[in-house]
Amino acid sequence: MLLSRSFALSRLLPIGLLLIAMACIQAGASLATVLFPAVGPATATSLRLIIAAALLWIIFRPWRWRVARRDWGNLATYGIALGAMNFLLYQAIDHIPLGIAVALEFTGPLSVALWSSKSRLDLLWVGIAITGLAVLLSLDHDSDTSTLNIYGVLCALGAGACWAAYILFGQKAGAVNGMQSAVWGITIAAVVIAPIGLVDIAADAADLQLLLIALGVAILSTALPYTLEMVALPRLPTQTFGTLMSLEPAFGALSGLLFLGQALGLLQWLAIAAIVVASVGTTLTGRSAQAIDSPYPN
């Protein structure tokens, strides 16, 4: 009896930690929108990346490990993809609801998962995913947002493409440098992408309250999820990890509803559910779980 309880706890604890991490990442995205009226999404991205990089350097101290010269190419591409993904996602959620933006962005890892999967059910999951996307991109929704801003949609899809690149190059970098790859990736993203948002930085960006909000975004979106991930992933089967990751669009929609008041219509919720089902399906019937490097790039 004691052994079974111990086994259940050892399995439930990492699952709980990953669920908390997903909730944190989407809560961080919601909190980031508070910065948009004062400094804009580009500057908000810059502040988040700079603060997140500083926090991860303090926590993981990457200078203790040497990176081989041949690995810098993958690390650089990984970091640029990570930074561009953050930039495009923040642009997207400034124009369209968070849940829809995350669902559209999730086409990136879903595409990688479907590409790597060899299951005969692939066509079914592709069909379900395309149906969900078609509903999200349609012009008639059962909500107050009757139309979707085309710029926001394109930015969300662009973020998805960057997420796919993040996965592919992150795998190569992570296979050699482990968690230090994430630290270097965030650092490279801050160095390359953050200056875009600092060009037109407003005087308000130096306001203590805004800096504290940016700190909260960095903690919720990066430092805390990565730390929880480090504890949880070694204790979970890869397939379980991939299945849990598939819930990301649902967490985005719930976060938008709870924190931003972004109520979605029934068709939009069903469309997001379809994308979740397609992702879960590719994870359970194919090799998709092995193609996903980290659930918390945003």
Order of helices and strands: HHHHHHHHHHHHH
Overall average residue pLDDT: 80
Number of strands: 0
- Measured between the Cα atoms of the first and last residue, the distance is 41 Å
Task: Please report the number of helical segments.
Answer: 13
Radius of gyration: 19 Å
Question: pLDDT below 50 for ≥5 consecutive residues: which ranges?
Answer: 139-145, 288-293
Q: What structural category arises from helix and sheet content? A: mainly alpha
Mind describing the biggest β-sheet? Answer: none
Fraction in helix = over 70%
User: Which shape, going by the Cα principal axes?
Assistant: globular
Beta-strand level of the residues, as a percent range? Answer: under 5%
